[in-house]
Design goal:
This protein has 144 residues and is mostly helical. The chain has helices at 21-29, 34-46, 50-60, 82-97, 103-143.
Length: 144
Amino acid sequence: MAKYLPGESGNYKGRPPGSSQRQKLFNALVEPRKEEIINTAINMALSGNEAMLKVLLDRLLPAKPKDEPLYFEIPNEPLNNAEALHQLALRLIATVASGELTPEQGQKLSSLIYDHYELIQTAEVNKRLDAIEEKNKAAQDRRK
């Protein structure tokens, strides 16, 4: 018996398209009456069949996004230090407190501000580490 690697069946051509029993049945029964079936479905939905209405709407209309875009004005000044981000967070808190944003929306934006703060901190630590390594390398070169 032949051994094949995972994902290899040995049948490199595979099954020809349209050869499955389901596809043949669909082609024979549904395809010739497609327009009639669609019209019947629409008429059922229009006459109050809620299940058919749901099927049609689910297929025809895109799903509503789970969240909406948030509108929160960000100042033109650079947000590249802790104080600027702190001021932005205070504005965000005031915006939530005034009811312009929901607490959940405020939390999401706050999370973005904090993530940006951590990126700034990481960049600052890397900069300091590079300076220390450069000093150490210069000191080692002087010793030689």
